[in-house]
Amino acid sequence: MSTTGHAEAPHSGAVAAVSSNAAYSFTKPNRESIRLLAGLGVEGDVHAGVTVKHRSRVAQDPTQPNLRQVHLIHRELFEEVAAAGFSVAPGQLGENVTTEGMDLHALPTGTLLRIGEQAVVEVTGLRNPCPQINAFQDGLLKQVVGRDEEGRVVRKAGIMGVVHRGGTIRPGDTITATLPPLPHVPLERV
Fold it and tell me: What is the largest CA-CA distance in the chain?
């Protein structure tokens, strides 16, 4: 067990799909590759930038730092929601990187993810799923947000990060996690 109370996450995985969209849209089309830009996010993606780009956050304070430059979701979530009757494919929940083989939610804040040959993304926190998920598929929000036995909110719709080092990433690229020094800080919504 880690200091977060989770079993240790596998420290490596792979990229299953990459997605981006230059326009505000809930889903993002899959691409052959995406290019990460240090300090900005995904080149050409509507959410790239030094300051917040999500509409609700811009409305609150447009000068906030953008801690949500890259959105990652584990492909295994799609299998989980499929068991409840939902069909979700990579990019459809707005993520930039769909991963496989890595428990993203068990990673602590500050984990560095080396993706492909060059790119490095620092994990900043959890995606806070919004009601748009129900507009995509009615009832899906309850599948990706719930409560644990102690009544705490559990968010399963992926993690967010900032780009430390840029690079091009593609499906099939490896992902290697380097955990920050102890004590580990569990992921919170960002």
Answer: 42
